[in-house]
Structures are given as C-alpha cells and as structure tokens.
Amino acid sequence: MAAPATSHTIPICSVPLAAAALTEVRSAAGEDPAKRRQILEGARRVFVTLGFDRASMNDVVRESGVSKSTLYVYFRSKEDLFRALIEEERARYFSEVEALLGEADQPARTLALFGRRLATLVLSPEGMHAKRTVIAVAARMPHLGREFYRHGPARGLAMVSDFLARACAAGTLRIDDLELAAAQFVELTTAGLLRRRFFDDEAPPATPAEIEATVDAAVRLFMAGYGVPGAAGQPSRAKSAITA
C-alpha cells in the first residue's frame, strides 16, 4: 500500500472499531509478526530519542529499515504506533501482576509481592517514558490521556480493589472505602521513589533494595490501618512483609 501524501490521524476515541477493522484486513492480508516487531522496535527507539512530538513516520522508516509503503500497511500514523507500544507495555504489566493478587488470607505477603513488582514496572525506563510521553501530549490529545488512564492505572486500581474486597470477606482486612484504600496502597509503593525520577532524568534508577524497603514500609503502614488484629497474615516489624 502506498503511503499517503500527508499523515492521517485516526481519532483514538474510535480505536475499538477502527482497530478491529484494521486487524481483520491485515490478518487476511497475512501480516508478518516479525515485520511488525521490527517496526515497533524502530518506533520505540525513535520515540525515546526524539520524543513523540518531534518524531515522524519518516524517522520510523529510517530506524526500522522498512519501506514507507510497508510501514503504512501496519500503522497509519505515529499515534497508531504509540498506541501499539503502550498496549504492549500494558499487556506485559497486567500479565505479570494480575497473578500475584491471589492469596486473600495472607494480605501482607500478597501485597508485598504485588507491590514490589508494581514498583519495579512503574519505575522502569519503559514505564517512565510512557508516562512522560502521555502527559506531554495529553493537553493536545486528551483522548490519549483518557485511554491511557482507563486501560492502565484505572484497571490496576480495580484489580487491587477487588483483592481488598476478597481479603475483607476472608476476615483479614477491614476497609470501608475499597477504592480509596487501593489508591492509597498503590501510591505508597513508590513513595519517595517516583517523583524525583519522573522529573529528573539524571536521577539514578531505584535499586531493588530501595524498592523492597519502600514496599515493605507501605505494607506495614497499610496493615496498621486496615489489618484485623489477630488475623492471619499480619506482618512483623522484624521481618520482610513477604516472609512474615
């Protein structure tokens, strides 16, 4: 397919129907997964180097080593490319953390395991870059910000809220406002680690030891407020929340 003379932006608010139609057409045409991966990796490097606003489809063509016509077979715009990259990160994130929210009868251990993985992913270079990019373009493309939040952070909070509800039913937690408690815990997992690194790209990466200490403190504080005295799974101050 020949590239259009000017880039056409597909409104992200229409993505569910548009994406489904494009997927059917491309599948029928025999889309090559390896070629798609080649394009996405090139686009990732371009966005990291130039930023979303300065990047162009021509930059992606050069970096990925494909022809312009091939690029437009797979992606119609740089917004399309960015959405695909975000969806990859989102899928990887949820596949890793959803399975961790299991044992409602051991909330301290479960929250510690979940919190460490959550903080590690949030503080990763890929996670930080995605958030910076969305915030940078959200004023001009508010639909992108809404989509990012609804299918990312909001979905994550719903997962935590569901776990907390199960823990309350098991008698290991006592919480009146599940959504508030979920948001509190998620914020605590990166307290003191996220903000500096979000604004200062020269700040050193958070170490595993820093993440572990921050999350363990978050679990203890959370359980002090919402734990049921005497119930199973209460953390000890002398131990990691995972080994408590």
UniProtKB/TrEMBL annotation:
<feature type="DNA-binding region" description="H-T-H motif">
    <location>
        <begin position="56"/>
        <end position="75"/>
    </location>
</feature>
<keyword id="KW-0238">DNA-binding</keyword>
<dbReference type="Pfam" id="PF14246">
    <property type="entry name" value="TetR_C_7"/>
</dbReference>
<dbReference type="GO" id="GO:0003700">
    <property type="term" value="F:DNA-binding transcription factor activity"/>
</dbReference>
<protein>
    <submittedName>
        <fullName>AcrR family transcriptional regulator</fullName>
    </submittedName>
</protein>
<keyword id="KW-0805">Transcription regulation</keyword>
<dbReference type="GO" id="GO:0000976">
    <property type="term" value="F:transcription cis-regulatory region binding"/>
</dbReference>
<dbReference type="Pfam" id="PF00440">
    <property type="entry name" value="TetR_N"/>
</dbReference>
<dbReference type="InterPro" id="IPR039536">
    <property type="entry name" value="TetR_C_Proteobacteria"/>
</dbReference>
<dbReference type="InterPro" id="IPR001647">
    <property type="entry name" value="HTH_TetR"/>
</dbReference>
<dbReference type="InterPro" id="IPR036271">
    <property type="entry name" value="Tet_transcr_reg_TetR-rel_C_sf"/>
</dbReference>
<dbReference type="InterPro" id="IPR050109">
    <property type="entry name" value="HTH-type_TetR-like_transc_reg"/>
</dbReference>
<dbReference type="InterPro" id="IPR009057">
    <property type="entry name" value="Homeodomain-like_sf"/>
</dbReference>
<keyword id="KW-0804">Transcription</keyword>
<feature type="domain" description="HTH tetR-type">
    <location>
        <begin position="33"/>
        <end position="93"/>
    </location>
</feature>
